[in-house]
Write a structure and sequence with these properties.
It is a single chain. This protein is of the alpha/beta class. It has 14 helices and 13 strands. The strands form 3 sheets. Strands 4-3-2-1-11-10-7-5 form an 8-stranded parallel beta sheet. A 3-stranded mixed beta sheet has the order 6-8-9, covered by helices on one side. It is globular. The structure holds D-gluconic acid. D-gluconic acid (GCO) binds next to loops.
């Protein structure tokens, strides 16, 4: 199967995040984050692994930029580590932290690659978490201060800005079921963290605009929800996973079914949250399926495994057409939405000769083209990820990179998929 062509000017990119690749967690004045605390807590991460070194990007960023240059990407989506820039999440910036991102972004720009800056990819400064984290409305105000600080320093180099990566995962996995940092299991009582993150998003958009940001969007993860005949269960899961984080931004309203779970006065914040954007970033990995609970419980749905598809080594079903389905659904649901970028899409497979990853890319890019032929305005695609990295509570076993990392020697080895993606990008020029 060959990949269809993409329009002139289509953006080809790769994505990473600070905590998953930087390492040097106690260097350069960086403060502790919720993930440093979580990885240091026995039983939270597979095999007791942590990210104190991971791919050591903090010291080896020039090597990684050279790999991106070989790849020929147009853009590189990275994240700033809040605890590296503001060690306690408030107050003056840490000069060494800013200097690291100066070095990194200068190298990216010198390589002719456009930096795409995510302000936050789940590494909340521990001091803010101790003060309530995203359960506290004040954290949104702290985030706005941080956004202004980073915007003022880097708006001259960053071409596209993303305030928050996947607020859904922080709310559901971090505060709802406790699988991720900070490890709270509040179930639906976690939903105020969604509102406070969305408020932080809106406040950051205006802070970045004031700092001269060129283009601002999101990186929300979305999944088509399957649930034939499971009406209420599927609708609730869709509201929780998709609409809770898209409707306020794209429609200026929350799904009715969740109103009772949001902080008092939430509606007053909607105009801030619904600040106009230049693009809507979608992170897509897999469809989800819901079923009506077999017994009374706290949630009006149960997750049903998606079967009958190839599986990744991270237990995700590979369903390329679900990406087309998702984008067409969003296009119909949000007629006024800005142009879309796929800010993450990827898969975990082992080995340097990674035929499965090339098949994954072929299938998803074909589905993406079909969504575009169906009228969805998609402007770019960022593969997750450039290099193997720390996959949160799963540790280092799932390998998502186009480049293999030997975690003993930190050697980088391009995989077959790296060469395949490079050739695709070259052909698309
Ligand atoms: O989507 C996410 O969960 C995150 O943005 C990434 O940090 C993950 O590492 C990636 O998706 C693979 O699971």
């Amino acid at each position: 199967m060959t990949v269809p062509s993409f329009p002139e000017g289509f953006v080809w990119g790769v994505s990473t995040s600070a905590f998953q690749i930087e390492g040097a967690t106690a260097e350069g004045g960086r403060g502790p984050s919720v993930w440093d605390t979580f990885t240091a807590t026995p039983g939270k991460v597979a095999r007791g692994e942590d990210a104190r070194v991971t791919a050591d990007h903090y010291h080896r960023y020039a090597e990684d930029v050279a790999l991106m240059s070989q790849l020929g990407v147009d853009a590189y989506r990275m994240s700033f580590a809040w605890p590296r820039i503001q060690p306690t999440g408030s107050g003056p910036a840490n000069a060494e932290g800013l200097a690291f991102y100066d070095r990194l972004l200068d190298a990216v720009c010198e390589a002719g690659i456009d930096p795409v800056g995510t302000l936050y990819h789940w590494d909340t400064p521990q001091a803010l978490e101790d003060a309530g984290g995203w359960l506290s409305r004040d954290t949104a105000a702290r985030f706005a201060d941080y956004a202004a600080l980073v915007g003022e320093r880097f708006a001259d180099r960053v071409k596209m800005w993303i305030p928050l990566n996947e607020p859904m995962v922080m709310s559901i996995f971090g505060y709802g079921i406790g699988e991720y940092a900070p490890g709270r299991a509040l179930l639906l009582d976690a939903l105020p963290t969604a509102h406070h993150q969305l408020l932080a998003h809106g406040l950051a958009v205006s802070a970045l605009r004031a700092a001269g940001a060129a283009s601002i969007g999101t990186a929300n993860n979305h999944s088509p929800i399957w649930g034939e005949g499971e009406g209420e269960a599927a609708a609730f899961l869709d509201a929780l996973i998709n609409r809770l984080f898209a409707d306020p931004i794209l429609l200026g309203s929350y799904p009715e079914v969740l109103h009772g779970r949001l902080p008092d006065g939430f509606a007053d914040d909607l105009p801030v949250i619904a600040a106009p954007l230049d693009f809507y970033g979608v992170n897509y990995y897999e469809p989800m399926a819901a079923t009506t609970p077999t017994a009374p419980g706290p949630l009006p749905f149960e997750l049903r495994p998606v079967e009958g598809y190839p599986m990744t080594t991270n237990d995700s079903p590979v369903v390329p057409d679900a990406l087309r389905e998702l984008l067409v659904t969003m296009h119909e649901r949000y007629p006024g939405m800005p142009p879309v970028h796929i800010t993450e899409n990827g898969c975990s497979f082992d080995g340097i000769h990674d035929r499965e990853r090339i098949d994954f890319l072929t299938g998803h890019l074909t589905a993406l083209r079909e969504a575009m032929d169906a009228g969805v305005d998609v402007r770019g695609y960022f593969f997750w990820s450039l290099i193997d990295n720390f996959e949160w509570s799963k540790g280092y076993a799932p390998r998502f990179g186009l480049v293999h990392i030997d975690y003993d020697t930190l050697a980088r080895t391009p995989k077959d998929s790296f060469h395949w993606y490079r050739d695709l990008i070259k052909r698309s020029r």
